[in-house]
Amino acid sequence: xxxxxxxxRARKAGILTVIDGAHAPGQIKLDLKVxxxxxxxxxxxxxxxxxxxxxxxxxxxxRQELIEPLVVGWGWGEDRTLSFGSDYLxxxxxxxxxxxxxxxxxxxxxxFQAEYNWPNVRKRCxxxxxxxxxxxxxxxxxxxxxxxxxxxxxxxxxAQLPPIPDIKSLKSQLYEQFKIEIPCIEWNDRQxxxxxxxxxxxxxxIDALLGALSTLLAKSH
Length: 221
Fold this sequence. Notes:
about 40% helix; 6 strands; alpha+beta; Aspartate Aminotransferase, domain 2; about 15% strand
């Protein structure tokens, strides 16, 4: 998605932009200043290899006064117990007895990816996703949902499935019979399967998925 262009046009029109970037950190290069969104949220526990709970909220400086905490904490009010030198941080960063270990682990997660040449890992993962989508399209005989391969996905993509009476049942059978946990969804009158490949996935995983789909789709028709 051309988010930089969308955010720039929205700003000229006086429209606030909120980007759901849950899957971006660790999967693609991310520069929040370049994107220029008013608000951006992302997760560290998905592709960045951090633990659950390590999410973040970014707000442009000129929009920070619009954000108010649902739960007040140590930085709230004039008589502040703790101050980070910014109302935005004081109000939002430290509330109650929040468990901060997930946030403190992010530097270790980024060092891990740097040490193991993660750009190469991402490239390998992308190649596996691309292969999986092509093979699923060949299996079903359905066209790809993407106009071309370049730039439309990185480590996560979807493929169309033929009409299935119960898409939830397919998801359950993939796990119960083949121990494959994968999202199978229905959206906009289409049934889709979402393939995600992280550094720990291998060619054998893709082969297992295609074998399972071949078996189950044959049974459903």
